[in-house]
Input
Amino acid sequence: MMNLKTVLRKELKSKPVDESKLGFGHVFTDHMLLIDYTEGIGWHDARIVPYGPISLDPACQVLHYGQEIFEGLKCYRRQDGGLNLFRPRANFERMARSAKRMGMAPLAVEDGLETLLALLKVEADWVPHQEGTSLYIRPTMIATDNHLGVSASSTYLYYVILSPSGAYYATGLAPVGIYVEDAYVRAVRGGVGEAKTGGNYAASILAGVNAKHSGYAQVLWLDGVEQRYIEEVGAMNMMFVYEDRRIVTPVLNGSILPGITRDSVLKLAAHMGYETQEARMDINAVIQDIQAGRITEAFGTGTAAVVSPVDHISFKGREIPIGKGGIGPITQKLYDTLTGIQYGRLEDPMDWIVRVN
Ligand SMILES: *Cc1c(COP(=O)(O)O)cnc(C)c1O
Output
């Protein structure tokens, strides 16, 4: 275990009383975790300290060249009051891969997990209680050298902040419409699409704003080479259900972010007896399959929403309904099962849960 110092806040903040008004990512807990990296020394000075602003030099590398990565996972409160994490090692493994792609110093998976568990023990009372709520966890790593020359930083800061968050679906799964983006792309072959780095989000913001103006919740991203193959939906992975029994998702190709929810849905669906397939998915073929009724459901997957049903899609000025509209039964079943495992209501056949306490 890394040596970890803890400085507790003298006066704790008051916790949100009405958990139905939490929303996402507005409220932060009393403490945060920081670890420094220095070339030649490695990761050092792990510490839990009161939550608050961090001071950066205006020449700080991350502010100019975006050498930054992050993760997103949740801590769930079980019915017995205890706390669950869902596949947290997968997040730290992905973060180490993101670090390598971005030329940054990876943090050891066990160090990431152990220090997170220590932070969660300090902040356990911040995990909300109401159905569907959770404590959102945001591990982040930034380059902290202070000079304007472009190079890999020799120092990094890793930090974790925690945010109690409301139920994503207050009144049950809500289907959305998506807009097939044919002008902009999110990521390209050989680029950083498979790294969880802020730049991918920056690249996606304008298209997202345009889609919202046109009345669509998210953008459906096509590949950055031919603009023909489906990649992701917003910041989620995309799944299609064929003929009520086969679940197909775009195969990981280097520009798609390898979602942990994506992987979990594929494994769970196979366990439940569905066929699963990872394939290159041509948008024209998919549109034909939707219109012919071969595609019966579609949904996005990600930690925030778990699944997000898609009931219509805009392609080249046409609006195309998917399946029978509304929430498909397989989408609903996968959502119920996955959230059931996360909150400890259902058995955990794949051994995915790590108990905090
Ligand atoms: C984080 C992320 C996802 C979803 O990953 P999960 O591990 O399932 O939360 C999908 N696409 C992008 C671009 C992401 O950043």
User: Anything to note?
Assistant: The pocket of pyridoxal-5'-phosphate is lined by residues 72, 196, 200, 232, 235-237, 257, 259-262, 301-303 (CB under 6 Å). The chain has seven helices and 18 strands.
